[in-house]
Amino acid sequence: MLIGILVGTGIGVLLGTVSGLVPGIHANTMAGVLLSLQAALLAYLDPAVLATAMFAALVTHTFLDIVPSTFLGIPDADTALAVLPAHALCLEGRGEEAVRISALGSALGVVLALPLLVLFFSLLPSLQPAIDWGIGLLILAVAGFLIVISESPGWAAAIFGVSGLLGLFTFRYSYLAWHTVGDSAVLMPLLAGLFGISVLLTASRGAMPPQEPGGPSGEECAVVKGSVLGAAAGALVGWLPGLSNATANALLTGAIGYDSRPRDYILATGAANTVNAFLALAAFYALGRTRNGVMVALSAGDVPPLTGLLLGGVLAALAAYLLTVRTAAFASLLGSVDAARLNYGVIVFVVLLSLLLSGPFGGLVLLLAVAVGLVPQMVNVRRVYCMGAIMLPVMLSSFGILLL
């Protein structure tokens, strides 16, 4: 049993490293690959090994996906808002610090996720009907709060609404996209346009500043507070149906300003993303509900004991932390790189990747998302309101307004 867990963890760490470092690829994709090869792999591997590999890949991905967000400014569903302060720190020569902060947050998220998992597993299943009913109201309250505290509530509401309509359009007609990497392929051009290309088009020019080595330097209380807030947001979206890491990132902006306290925000989102992975596993075992593609893949095979998957997840987290910190050390190679050429190169890469993953429909979504993503800077409001692209569809769906 232990050998199988170790083998599965090793496979999962390898797959999660690839999905975390390659923009546009998610751990859900890797789980789908393992599921498609299951018939052949079961001739050599135990079902528990494959299940452990799937979950280990998900945990590993939550650590390493901050790397392309920080150094290239390319977000995925897990780092849509975290890309803004992380890439900003990179442009100040603090990219390695940003990655290390996120890795610390993810590691603390593992520590906090385990007691939360036991608590949720024991108490929440009996309350689930009431919890399901209140999801839409929660998102509505958070969105309303963010808009009210905005520098310009009118523009904030408009951006939230327009990006929400774009999200509804994207998900409603997602069948027109090429699902090269599964159903999540359409998220790549949507989020890359709102939070990636639109930022790179207006980014500073000149040489990339030398990247200084360094790690987290915040106060102990700030680390504890950020990790606890992140764990709470991650637990919320990990247990509740229809929510995602992107929703957790948006929820955290109400408590931690990503522009005023970027390091705290990066740490909190790192914790949230990893806690989400563990609590989604708890929801799967306690309720039989699948919160992400990895859980869907797990449900298609023989489900192993929960303790084995948790052990594999913890071991994967340890390996992923070391890999993330080691990868961040290569930030010094970016020093003196022409920032304009790097930005344009990334833009071309994202455009080609969007077309490759989701076809002409993905190109249309990317174009529309870039247009919407340019508005916040033009009217001097925060880009968080572009999260309407995710929040509005989830909100309407929870109210039973099936527009998707």
Automatic annotation (TrEMBL):
Record's protein name: DUF112 domain-containing protein
Entry annotated with the keyword Transmembrane helix: yes
InterPro entries (alphabetical): DUF112_TM
Keyword vocabulary terms for this entry: Membrane, Transmembrane, Transmembrane helix
This protein's record includes keyword Transmembrane helix: yes
A Pfam family recorded for this sequence: TctA
Stretches assigned to the DUF112 domain: 10-387
Residue ranges of the TM segments: 44-64, 101-124, 130-149, 156-178, 184-203, 223-242, 265-287, 308-334, 346-372, 384-403
